[in-house]
Amino acid sequence: MKIAIVLGATGGIGESVVHKLIKDGFTVIGTYAHSANKAIKLKEKYGDSFEIYQLDVSDESSISTFLNKINNKEINSFVNCSGINRDSFLFNLTEDNWNDVIEINLIGSIQINIGILKLMIKRKYGRIVNLSSVSGIYGRETQVNYSTSKGGIIGLTQLLGNYVGENEDIVCTTVAPGMIETEMVQGVSQRKLDLFLDACTAKQVGNVEHIADLVSFLVSDKNSYLQNTLINVDGGFMKC
Amino acid sequence: MLEVENAGNNVNAYLKDYLKNNLTSQFIDDGLLVNGIDYVNENSFFDGVSTEELGAKLMNLYKINKKISSEMMKKKRGTIVFLFEPQLYKNFNSGRYSPIYNQAKLSFMKSMAKEFNPFNINVLGIVIGVNKEKKQIEFAKEKKLDVVQLKLKTLTIEQQCKNITMIIENAKIFRGQCISVESNIPLYI
Question: Is the pLDDT of residue B69 over 60?
């Protein structure tokens, strides 16, 4: 039985990744922060192929509890889709909004990634995919907090990849989605959206399946050499 | 106004003095903030060391840049520089291997550059080179840097500061970019 953990399973991209991985034959352990109703619906939909736990990545004890729950499981793959945004220009950005985004998107992710990597090292096998963002690569106005956290995620994958030994079949990659049709993007102003599309070769917003299909490959045995790689899934943003 | 963050670090302290003595006074009058070289021992996270220091350093980055950029916005001029150290040190000095902090700082710089361009504030990154310091020279001699450039030359701190000063004096044309003071050593190899 192949087991995959999906952090942020009730989010737009997370749910699509869960769906794809179950289709690929994985048993998925998902986590959610607040959307309990959505979590129940997912459990009803996928039955025995799916377990779900509440996990607050900004709370160390919640992380420890979760890591203890999965400690004896043979984890094949880990996909980190968790993330929040609190957009504001820097001069207006409050300390709380800085801290929330950094704690949830980055600091919590570091602790979970390291915990899961250690389990994978015991088995000498694993696939880790962390979701960053084009905002982490190019930066974006009103997103200094989000962009910093997602940039840190790119560095996190470097750190993990560097720690893995030569004889361990563990591959760590980062995926940087561009504008993907999710709840998060629904809050983006039309002007910003138009600017993005204008600078995008595909001239359209991506959908969650674009990400899920790539993740499906990255967590499979077919992926053995995309080590420490950052892959943009952005329809050719800034490349036209 | 000239602020160099983390001036406890040798390179940052040297740079602060060098800039005071050599930078065109106009830049100091307009306001110059240098977010100096800094790192967190990120390999220690695997030994159970808390991520608290990383969170605190990122919080400090946010606070100091918010405070000083707000002052610069009122005057509609100023320069904010972020210094980066190439992540070459994983092989001989794990205490300085800090990819998360450095990459986060780079993304922070890029977002700031976009926000502050309309206020005529220069925001840019500078990657320092390999220093003429014992461990780094040894590293270069082992030819491990041949992957970057054959026979890569190491620079003294003074030579590096001279190059940094030159870049700062031309900051307007480097807005939003990350420039290396010598050969193009990537932040990560």
Answer: yes
Q: At what angle do helices B10-22 and B157-169 cross, to 10 degrees?
A: 50
CATH of the domain at A145: 3.40.50.720
Whole-angstrom distance between the N-terminal and C-terminal Cα of chain B?
36
B49 touching A (Cβ < 8 Å): no
| Interface residues on A facing B, Cβ-Cβ cutoff 8 A | 89-91, 93, 95, 98-99, 102-103, 106-107, 110-111, 114, 118, 135-145, 147-152, 154-156, 158-159, 162-163
pLDDT of residue A101: 97
Q: Which of B46, B73, B100 sits opposite A156 (nearest CB)?
A: B100
Q: In A, which residues are within 8 Å of B48 by CB distance?
A: none
- Owning domain of residue B145: 2-180
| Torsion over CA: B105, B107, B110, B114 (sign) | negative
Interface pTM, i.e. ipTM? 0.94
Q: Is the dihedral of CA A91, A97, A103, A109 positive or negative?
A: negative
Tokens of A143: 């997103």
Q: CB B99 to CB A159 under 8 A?
A: yes
Say whether A125 is catalytic. Answer: no
Specify the CATH number for the domain of residue B92: 3.40.50.720
Q: What is the pLDDT of residues A75-97, one digit of tens each?
A: 999 999 999 999 999 999 999 99
To the nearest whole Å, the CA of B59 is away from the closest chain A CA by 7
Nearest to B51 among A98, A110, A155 (CB): A110
